[in-house]
Amino acid sequence: MWILVHPRFDQATEYSNAWAEQVKEWLGDECIDLATDDAVRDKVEEALALHPGADMAFYDHGNEVSLIGQDHLPIISLPNAHLLANRETYTLACLSAKDLGVEIWRNGGKFWG
């Protein structure tokens, strides 16, 4: 099972959203889709809590310490990186592997970004 998170609020996220839609189609029933207005911290944290065995894919903006949601606020950051422990996380988020990826790894997760 994969939690697919893909905000859409600028040109870059328009492109990556199209890729995410293809991934969603490919995953079929194995996908929990958190797109646009659902691509926010509370929805992501809820999905992670409800699906403890699910991995996460995130399409687009980030920085050294966070993945950025639809509301331009972090959905995953250093304080809640433990939520991705024992999961695989795949992102296209710039710079996110620098500190956030390391923190997820320290918590026992795998981070591809």
Keywords:
113 residues, alpha/beta, 5-stranded parallel β-sheet, 3-stranded antiparallel β-sheet, 3 helices, 27% strand, globular, CHAT domain-containing protein
Description:
This protein is an alpha/beta fold and 113 residues long. The chain has one domain. It has helices spanning 11-27, 41-50, 97-106; strands at 2-6, 31-35, 55-58, 62-63, 66-68, 74-77, 88-91, 110-112. It has a five-stranded parallel β-sheet, sandwiched between helices. The chain has a three-stranded antiparallel β-sheet with strand order 4-5-6. The mean pLDDT is 96. This is CHAT domain-containing protein.
Summary, kept brief:
With 113 residues, this protein is α/β, with parallel strands linked by helices.
Blueprint (SSEs and pairs):
Layout: E1 2-6, H1 11-27, E2 31-35, H2 41-50, E3 55-58, E4 62-63, E5 66-68, E6 74-77, E7 88-91, H3 97-106, E8 110-112
Parallel strand pairs: 1-2, 1-3, 3-7, 7-8
Antiparallel strand pairs: 4-5, 5-6
Protein name: CHAT domain-containing protein
Organism: marine sediment metagenome
